[in-house]
Structure formats: structure tokens, C-alpha cells
Amino acid sequence: MPEVRLELFESLMAVAQPLLRDGSMDFAIGQLHPSQATREFACETLLDYQTSVLVRQGHPRQGCRSIHELLEQNWTLNYAPDGHDALMQELFWKHGAHIDEQRIVRAHSLAILQMMVERADMCTWGPSIVSIAPPFLGRVVSLSLAEQFEPRQLSIVTRRNGALSNAAICFTECLLQVIRRHARSARKEDRQLFETLRLLV
To answer: What is the pTM of this model?
Structure first.
């Protein structure tokens, strides 16, 4: 499509919100807090995804079966400024686990988070699909813990009452086509990916 400026951001939704608000970004793909969705942003939910604790392949605590066995480890986590308590509740507190928060490094991008998991033996928490998707396959593993975590939703987020540009509509339609094609695929790799996902569109 001619005369289209494509700009991609890898960041938290908190970074995308001002860009969505002033119209310089057409849409974001991510997770939006329900209170924000009702006020100024609209969501089209694409899928649910399972979450788990992730460590590098060969991590000394890879065989752990409880979050309580990981409280003396260093962690790297990604969360919005107003998302700290919700994340701590989901990952630790509701399971009766309490971690020294000086052990937690907050990472603002997947690249930084990946480096700290692989190079510094840190634990993290995120989509289970990370452990079976390139380029992480064979490098990051999902731990089978007794504690279970709630699935999260991936959505297309737009300004409420704002019209998408033709380029944005084309992009999102192509994205949905690719997701649906892989969801219907009989390839072993695709079936493994969708074991951790539930398509909602």
C-alpha cells in the first residue's frame, strides 16, 4: 500500500496509550486493563493465552514444582506502573508466597527480559507459548508448577469512537487471516502453539 508510514513499537500498553490518544498510533496489540477499556479505548479480543513461570534451558531450578521453591531466585518482570499489585497478586500473593522485591528487576522490553533470563539465570512470568515458539524454542522452558495462573487476553486496542485508517484495517485483517490459518493448520508446530492458546475470533 503506497504512502503508508509503518512504525512498530515493542513496549508496554502504558507507552502506547498516549500515542493512541493523540492519534499518532492507529492501534496497539496487547492487554488493556478493563477500567481503561470502558473509558477511552476499545478492544477486539483475539485470543486467550496461558501463562507460566519461564527460565532458561538448563537453569539450576528448572525441576522446581512450586513457586515457593523460587522465592530465593532473582526475577525479571514486565508490568505497567499501575499493574504492580495485580501482577504480584497473580504470581505470588494469592499462592501464599512472599518474595523480597529487591530480587525483582523490571524490564521494559522483551529483548531485555530475554537477555536477563538467558544470561543472568533470572526467572520470569509470561505467555507459555514463549517456550515453544521460535526464536525461544530450546532456550527457554515453561515450568510445570503446582500453582496455576489465570489466562490472559490479547486484543487489538483502538481509540473509542475513532475510525481506523485504510492501512490499519488492511494490517489487522491480514493479522487475523494469519492467526486463523495457523489455528486451522495440521502442522505439528502450529498444533503445539495452539495448545497454549484459545482463539476468540
So the answer is: 0.84
